Structure formats: C-alpha cells, structure tokens
Amino acid sequence: MSISISARFAFHLFEPTDLLLQFEAADIPEQEVLSTTTKLAPALHVARVPAHNHIGERIWVRAEGAYAVGYEAEVEINRIAPDLASLAAVDPHALPGEAVEYLFDSRYCQADRMQNFVADRFGDLSGGAQVLAMCDWISDNFHYEPGASNAQTTALDSFAERRGICRDYAHVLIAFARASTIPARYVSCFAPGVDPQDFHAVAEVFLADPSVPEGGAWYLADPTGMADPAKTAKIGIGRDAADVSFLTTFRHSRFEFSEVRVTETK
Amino acid sequence: MSISISARFAFHLFEPTDLLLQFEAADIPEQEVLSTTTKLAPALHVARVPAHNHIGERIWVRAEGAYAVGYEAEVEINRIAPDLASLAAVDPHALPGEAVEYLFDSRYCQADRMQNFVADRFGDLSGGAQVLAMCDWISDNFHYEPGASNAQTTALDSFAERRGICRDYAHVLIAFARASTIPARYVSCFAPGVDPQDFHAVAEVFLADPSVPEGGAWYLADPTGMADPAKTAKIGIGRDAADVSFLTTFRHSRFEFSEVRVTETK
Amino acid sequence: MSISISARFAFHLFEPTDLLLQFEAADIPEQEVLSTTTKLAPALHVARVPAHNHIGERIWVRAEGAYAVGYEAEVEINRIAPDLASLAAVDPHALPGEAVEYLFDSRYCQADRMQNFVADRFGDLSGGAQVLAMCDWISDNFHYEPGASNAQTTALDSFAERRGICRDYAHVLIAFARASTIPARYVSCFAPGVDPQDFHAVAEVFLADPSVPEGGAWYLADPTGMADPAKTAKIGIGRDAADVSFLTTFRHSRFEFSEVRVTETK
Amino acid sequence: MSISISARFAFHLFEPTDLLLQFEAADIPEQEVLSTTTKLAPALHVARVPAHNHIGERIWVRAEGAYAVGYEAEVEINRIAPDLASLAAVDPHALPGEAVEYLFDSRYCQADRMQNFVADRFGDLSGGAQVLAMCDWISDNFHYEPGASNAQTTALDSFAERRGICRDYAHVLIAFARASTIPARYVSCFAPGVDPQDFHAVAEVFLADPSVPEGGAWYLADPTGMADPAKTAKIGIGRDAADVSFLTTFRHSRFEFSEVRVTETK
C-alpha cells in the first residue's frame, strides 16, 4: 500500500522566533519513504534533530515575518496491523524500561483521574479487546466538533464535554489505556480517509507481540475510526500533543492556514 | 563529599496491585554509590528496569496488603557545580535532540501559559543568570507550606497561590525555564540540609558547557535554596513529578509514612 | 416529623480573623425550629446577617486562637415532598427572575460544559422524571469516597473521577440540571440517615408547582439517596458549596474537628 | 453627562432554543434612561424578568434560525464618583447580608487561591487605596490581548497568563478584592472611550459611604482604565461574567457579530 502526501502551511512571526517543525513522514522500518520534497522559506537558522524515540525528525528554524512550508512525499506502508482483539496485555512488571514512561500522566492525559471510570466500565476486559472497547465507547459517546477544543483542552475536559477532534479523541484513549496500565502514546500522522483532510492524530498502545515470547510491540488505534493502520504514515510520536505538534513556536505567532491532501496510490 | 542516606516508607494495597518504586541513588558518573542496602517486603513479582534517560532504576512490584521498603546507602558526590551566573544559554537550534523534549509542556509544567510573565520579568537576562533570577524570584515570592498542595497541583496553580513544597517550587522553575526556551527537567534526590528531612526535588537546566565548544550540559538548580548541588544525590529525572515519584501505584492505595535521614559523612 | 440535632466543631485561627458561620437550621415555613441553643466561644465581634434568599442566618465572627462552636436544636419538618416523577419542568421563559441566577454557572458547577452529555443521556426525559434519572445515574456511577475530594474539586472533576462525597454528588446534579435549563441550587442541611453522620448537602431544583397555575417551587433531591426530604432540616442555600459552608474563614486557619448527630424524635 | 448608545448583534440558533438577553442600560437612580428603542427579531416567546439585585432586566427569548437584536438609547449619568483613595473599607462583621454573597468564590473568580499574593502585595493598604493599587498592578502587569481568552478563562488563568480583555481584567480585580474581604461584583456596561468599541465590563467594590455613618455603597473600578465612572451606563451586575452576558444560550449556537457605538452627547 502506498500513499501520496501533499501538505502546505504558513504562519507569521512578529519578531525573530525559534520554532520547531515536525511534519514529514518518518523513515522507519514499518514505512518506506519512496520520494520526498520539503520546501522551507528562507530562515536565519535551520537544523535537524532526531525526534522522540528516534522516530522521524524535528526541524529547528529561526525566522521572522511570513513563513511558509511545503511538503510532498510518496510513502509505502509495510506495517503489519493485526486484529487488536487477539492481542494480550503485557504484565506491568514485564514492560521494558522504555515503555514505562508511556504509563505516566502527561500534559493533556491525566490518567490517574480516570481510574474509577476505566475500572467500572472496561474492567472485565484486558489487552487489545479492552482497547477496542475503549475506542468504541469514545466513538459512541463523543461528538466530532471542529472548533470546540483548543490548545489548552485536556483529556479530562474532553471526557466531560464529550466532544473534540482527532487530537482530543486520541488523548482520551491514551488516558483510558494508561489508567488500565497499558502504555499508550500519541502519534501524529497522515492518512487517507480523514475527513476533513488535515494533519491527523491517533494513539498507539503497547501490547503483547505474538511473534516474540514475552515480547511487546506498539499498535495503532484510532478512536475516530478514520485512519486504517495499514494506510497510515507516521510523522512522529510523543506522550501527547505537546510533544508532536507540526508547529511549535516559542513566541507568539499567528497561524495562517494549512492544507493537506493524502491519497492512496496503489 | 560523601553523604549517608537512610530511608523507610510503607503503604497498604487493598488488592493485588502493580506499582513502581524509584527511591535509590542512581549510580552515574557524577556520583558513586559506595555501599547500598535495599530491603523490599515479599511480593508476587519484582523486576528492575532502567529509568528515564538511563539515570537510575525503577522497580516493578506486584504485591498486596501492607508493604514496606527500607534503604541505606553511602554515596560520594563528584559533581562539578559551577556558578550558574557564568553559564550562557544554548541557542535553541543548537540543542541536541535529546534535550528538546524538556522544552515541551508536561503534566504539571504548562510553560506555554507563562510566556508573558517570563518575558516581562526575566526577559532582560539569559542563560544561567536568568535561571538564578528565576530561583530568587520564587524564593522571594513563595511561602513554603507543607500540606498546601496535593498530587493534582500544577505549576500554574502554585504560581497563582504562591505556595507549596519542593515539588511545587521545582515545577514553577521548570515552567519558567521552558517558557524562556531553556530545557528543564525534574530531579528527585537526597540532600542534607532539607528541612524537614524528606525525599527532595529540584530542577535541572540545560545550559552551555564551557569545556565543550558548542556543547551543553545539565545543571542542578534548587529554588528552595535547601540543596547544595555538590552534596545532592540524584535518584532519577523526568519531565516533572509524574515521572519520578518514589511510589507510583496503579490502583488505589493508602500511604502510611515515610522517614528520610541524610547526613554529610565527610 | 421532628428531628433532634446536635453539632460541635472547632478550629484554630493563627491571627485575628474574620469568619462566617452558617450552621443552624433555618426558621422557615417548611420547617419549625421548636428549640435551639447556640454556644459560640468568646469573640472580638459577633454579628448576625440574613443569608442567601433570606433562608437562615450567617454569623460574622472576628476571633483569634482556638475557637469552638456548639449547637443543639429540635426541628419539626412540615415540608410536602411530592414524587418528583410527577412534576413538569417550568418553561424557561416562564421562570421568575429570582430563579434565573440558579441557571448560571457557579464556582463548582460548570453546567455549560455538560450540555452534550446531558442532552445525549437524559434528553428524552424532562422535569422531575429527568431529575430522578440524573440522581439514579449519579448513584449508579459514583463511588462514595470520603477524602477523595477537597475544597477545589468541581463538578467537572467529580464527573471525570466518578467519586466524592455529598458535596460532590450535589454539585454534579446541580450542573446536570442547569445544563438542561432547570434551575438548581445547593442546600446544606441536617438529616438522619446520613452515614457517616456529618453536615450534609443536597440539591434543590425548581419545577412546576401543581397547586399553582403556571407556578413553580423548589424541591429537594439527594443523589446520595441518604436524606429523605420529609426529614431534612435546611441550614441554608446558595449557588454551590462556595456560598453555604458552615465555616468560611478569610485567613488561613486549621480545622480541628466536627461532630454531628441527627435523630428522628417522632 | 449624557451618552448615546447604539448596539446591534446577531447569532444563529440551530434548533428552537431558549436564550437570555441582557443588553439594555438599566433604569436606576444613578442613571436615567432618557430614550430607548429595542428591536428584537420575531420569536416564539418573549418575556422580561428583573435581573440580579433588580438592576436592569433580562429578556427570555425562544427562537430558531437567524436572530438579530438592535438597541438605541440616550442615558443621563448622575452617578457620584468619589476618589476611591479616600474611602475606607467596611469591617466584615458590619457588612449587610446582601453584600456577603459578593465575598464568595464564583465561576470565574477563585479568590480563595489568591490570598497569599494579595496579602503579600497589597496587605499594607486597605479600602479604596488598596483597590486602586490592585487596579494599577493589573494595568502594569497585564497585556490587553483580544482573542487570548475565551469563555472558559478564569481569574486564575488570567493571573498566570498576564493577559486578556476587559472581562478578564475585571475578574482578576474581583478575585483580588474578595481575597482581601472586600465585596466585589461584575458590571456589564456601556462607556465611551472603550477601544475597540464593544460591550464593556468593569468591577464594582463595596466600601464605606462617607455620607452614611457605618454605611457602605458600591463603587465602580475599571482596571483597564478605559471607562470613566461618571460616563458609564450600567447594563447589569452579577458575581462574574457568568451572570451578565449580553447573550446566554442554552443550546449550541453560532455568534455572528456585534457592533457597539457609545458617544458623549453633553
């Protein structure tokens, strides 16, 4: 399965400003970047650094005034996407050290506060079947309302308000999974089928890998139901949206627009 | 400089519960663990995993009922603790990839919301001098009030309420530093001079390392003024207190007590 | 129905402090205070003022150091407590002006953020039947956990955490009712059957009064199920717990203890 | 002093919706409404009710689809606006019952959490001089940034972020005053000099009335510095913005625009 990606976005910087960009499909074993073109407006400095867990890259830019970014890529997805329902949980004391940080609370995902609800509602299930039940519950109980959330909105807010966009759906799933001692992280990505077309976000959960005795692996899960793991190109991962925004500015800036198109090519 | 550490704590688990412990001084180049004794109550499972950035270890325990931990150690501190005032900031675009995550917002440290205050109050300074001014401001404006904060209290809360304990002081400094594009992280530690004696927490900031051209390093900073970096034994680090609690339980539990003694031995 | 009330509480004031007390059963048509004894420790000033909507009284005290209060009363409850299920809602545009403020958000009851949930879950009901369904839902989905909430906990917090005490149960019901355009207020009260015995809190909702054409009245509703309206003595009312605490101090103070006993006498 | 007011606003209701409007200058002793014209679009129901403390009126409307409101008025302001610096505080135990509710925390004004800051920063002053110092502090430390706050933003948020609009400035002043045991309420109003022209909001504080022994009165205070009390026409008052929005809808709606013009006429 290959997908073709085209993305453009622009913003305005009122003074010389440091910012981080992370918008390119990551070149990792589960997906091969066949071709890629990145166009950055001129800047005072540009530097690339590896991103979270060495999945993808971040680009440091120092610039001022109007700034625009263009990106085109062709990505072949080789990810194996098993039925989550068949996957067991990994016992907490068997979790590898690098998965442990994805159990802890993060900026937008306060799992500690969801323990009663998660135990009451999903406590009779475990592993992948539990994660699927969480996805279904979110899908059934939430209203997809662009504009209803903002950069301050947390999983706790979304859970009470029962609405949001992909970012908020992913945050709630991450909080639920962590509250059930399943490591969960945030994945920014490109996927065909996302409506309206835009940068997308899903969750990734750490469950048993049936091919490795006592081993575990990360599996994509999208509570919006819009992204098929077999057609999804990861940009990067993090503990939540605070870690993998496509644009993080360290001064006030004005966002102008973004335009994303993702299509299946074979 | 050597310090002698003695710590005990106990809690009750109402059902078989997975929990994480992180309470031992880390064995890392800047501090040498000369002797150590850890006593854990019997458990269903015990497993050690490396902690954040491979600084120290976490212990997975699965247990039920009353549970107690005892720890004794002798640690020699070899850390070089330069005067922060002499250290320059590292340009954001020169930050190594592994420092970048410590610029982002975390559970308790919402740096994005402190940008106006930090720019207005500390904007005429930079680097270590700026961090010292932040420490002084916190020390001057905060009331050290045990019991005034809890596990939900964030840097934003503390900043408004002007009170808290070491955890809260560290969170506010971390949020301030990040708002000024200085990577900052949370350090749980043992230090003589902490009053009342207890597990302690300070911040660590990433600034230029004068001995390495274009390089940077992490430096301890304690806005409570109680811990001397030359006498502080690190337990572990993380983005904030969510990552390095000495006890994280994944079910409801009842904390019984903790008792910590730290003394200089030479 | 008569009830006998005995209450004592004490606290410590570190400096000369103004405080408000509101702990006595109100003398209002629906309940007759047969006998009453209030003992206040000596104070610098004492003054009584009418409380919210002239239901009950508040006592201003200015004092310092240890302070104790004792209260004994016999109250006859004459309240008519119809089956809520039989009561219609009052159309919003027919609400009297003095009920309108109880539709608005207050410190602990952010009804605006519950609209989706309330419409989805309770939207097919109205009036008293809807309020009863809300009470049942809270009772079924919440854990009564003394110590799990504090003076900062809001209805939004409780709704996510699914736990709390009478105060939190009442706040959630109030937020739900207001989100459905039913005026709702907070009632502090004494009631036999409260377990453990303590000051109690319930909600009151404004619904149609079958005996008055186009009229409305306030009706008690207790989502904890512990207080019977026919045996409940109101202390006071307000928009939420911020308005009718039995003790509000305007400086830091240390609460010592409270002890409440309420029994049916005939 | 007379002012001429012209206001228009419009919104869209997706289904039959109950809403409250409060946008007309109140007819009260301190200001005389010389002429007034209110144009409401056709509605399913319209009913007027007295507003908070009988200052002004609220209009209940039930309507659907596009809805527009127009208002023209000429108001003569007779308010006496003494120099706040000359006014003493009223002792808490001398406050009348109806002022007491304005000491309590409300939806957006969490005074309990500001006590340390207020005592440390303003504790050497009292009464009107203290309120003026609070206004100056807000004016000096805040950035007036339209768009930086939203309907969820509280005084605590604004205090940390150091920015907002008139609503947020008023909320912070109200929280400060209450933390110092000075009753404070929210006033929606029209005033010339507001830039950009719009519905405006200020605070009102309860201080000693020099003309009445032991008496008190409400005095306007605007931390934005844009509204002159001698030229301000009150619309209504409440505990905070939750109580006196010019438009409160009890279902989701889409706001279209508002346009306000206020000029001095003599």
TrEMBL record, chains A, B, C, D:
SUPFAM superfamilies: Cysteine proteinases. Gene3D superfamilies: 2.60.40.2250, 3.10.620.30. Pfam families: Transglut_core. Residues 158-225 form the Transglutaminase-like domain. InterPro entries: Papain-like_cys_pep_sf (IPR038765), Transglutaminase-like (IPR002931). PANTHER family: BLL5557 PROTEIN, BLR5614 PROTEIN-RELATED. This is Transglutaminase family protein. It comes from Aurantiacibacter gilvus.
